[in-house]
Amino acid sequence: MDENKRREILKELMNTYSKKILNFFYYSIGDKEEARDLLQDVFLKVYKGLPKFKGESSHYTWVYRIAINTLRTYLRRQKFKKFFSFEKIPEEIHPGYDPPSKPPLILYEVLKKMPQEFKEVILLYYYEEYGIKEISEILGIPEGTVKSRLFRGREFIKNYLEKRGFYGM
Q1: CA dist., res. 102 & res. 87, Å (int)
Q2: Residue 83 scores a pLDDT above 80
Q3: CB of 106 within 8 A of CB of 161?
Q4: Alpha carbon distances (Å) from 160 to 93, 106, 110, 120, 122
């Protein structure tokens, strides 16, 4: 693959997936700057990997796998045992201010406590709006496992909210 073709494909992939991946990272770690750094890492890996891409999966599956693996590596390096670990609530979220494009503050609290395997599926399903089959391809797990994790993730959210008086009122 020549350099111009590689750059053209990278540009197309960045235009298509950057915003979604950035949001995924931001909601995962709660830090805009770290999310941007991770996004750059992802597309550097994509650029380096393009000559080896054989088309056995779609571009979106390949790019999202790179993104998820990049996030997992980042979290391991930070010695986080969980997928989310907010030291603080993101600076854009203030008490009494809930912009329509941001999830409610309680969601950050729930996601902070949720096990990694549920968070990945919940975020991909509800925030990235991928279907069961697509999530299965992205994560490299069976569709039944995706469904199970979605169910268990929803149960986790429901139980968490019930304990705090937000659910089932």
Answers
A1: 18
A2: no
A3: yes
A4: 20, 10, 7, 18, 15
